[in-house]
Specification:
The chain has a single domain, classed as Undecaprenyl pyrophosphate synthetase, CATH 3.40.1180.10. The protein has eight helices and six strands. A six-stranded parallel sheet has the order 3-4-2-1-5-6, sandwiched between helices. Helix 1 packs across helix 2 and helix 3 packs parallel to helix 4. The longest helix has 24 residues. The radius of gyration is 19 Å and the shape is globular. The two termini are 32 Å apart. The structure holds farnesyl diphosphate. The site of farnesyl diphosphate has 18 residues, from helix 1, helix 2, strand 2 and helix 3.
């Protein structure tokens, strides 16, 4: 297997976990079984990221658009989320993983919301890795929410519209306090962002794997990190400028 340079790790890795349905179809199984296997891949990737020393791992677990799926599938995904949180609490506590969530959490069914908030509270003192689940998340909705909050501050006379900066926006995002992702992984061979972290991905390195999410393994994750480490991040500068820095 290829070697990871632990001195040049991405601080924040975000993942669009795609392909559970196609995995199920390809294996002549139902979609729910695909999602169950997807939850297994979540376990593997969280463990791998923690072992490698990734500080922030953000997983797109349920988008605002996903509410339009058949109600049976939504119900199954929410039950799977509850089960995952119940089963993984010990692992999170043993490994210093702090759980966090971004998205319209209030839209989740009460049982899922309750266990999510409990797990966030129980893991709040952990310091080794932040695992963020994007749930009922949409990047455009997030930006609308930010715009509203900033507009309210202007109306209240606390902020001058002419003084609005990029930092104001960053501070009002669901991800306030987190670094932007260094690496975005999307599985299943689709080349889309799908309304994920629209503001935060401005300078992120994108990695598309032609692997369906349930098959995304420890080795697949390591390969993505190694690929990231081969790239030169220029943030709009030239290579020569970077070399002089
Ligand atoms: C995409 O597969 C995946 C999702 C809709 C959500 C991700 C959910 C999981 C990985 C399972 C449980 C999650 C947790 C955190 C326990 P898809 O259904 O869009 O696949 P398709 O595009 O092939 O139909």
């Amino acid at each position: 297997m290829q070697e990871i340079d632990i001195n040049r790790l991405p601080r924040h890795v975000a993942v669009i976990m795609d392909g559970n349905g196609r995995w199920a179809k390809r294996n002549a199984l139902n979609r729910l079984t695909g999602h169950k296997r997807g939850a297994g891949a979540v376990r593997t990737i969280v463990r791998t990221a923690r072992e490698i020393g990734i500080q922030y791992l953000t997983l797109y677990a349920f988008s605002v658009e996903n509410w339009s799926r058949p109600s049976e599938e939504i119900k199954a995904l929410m039950l799977l989320l509850e089960k995952y949180l119940r089963d993984e609490l010990k692992e999170m506590l043993d490994n210093g993983i702090r759980l966090s969530a971004i998205g319209k959490i209030d839209a989740l069914p009460p049982a899922a919301r309750r266990i999510l908030l409990e797990t966030i509270e129980k893991t709040a003192a952990n310091r080794d890795m932040v695992l963020t689940l994007a749930l009922s998340y949409g990047g455009r909705d997030e930006l609308v929410e930010v715009t509203r909050k900033i507009a309210m501050e202007c109306v209240a006379g606390k902020l001058d519209p002419a003084g609005i900066t990029k930092e104001h926006i960053t501070q009002h995002l669901f991800t306030a306090g987190m670094p932007d992702p260094d690496l975005l992984i999307r599985t299943s061979g689709e080349y889309r962002i799908s309304n994920f972290l629209l503001w935060q991905l401005a300078y992120t390195e994108l990695y598309f794997a032609d692997i369906l999410w349930p098959d995304f393994s420890r080795e697949s994750f390591i390969e993505a990190v190694v690929d990231y480490q081969r790239r030169e991040r220029r943030f709009g500068l030239t290579s020569d400028q970077l070399a002089r820095m």
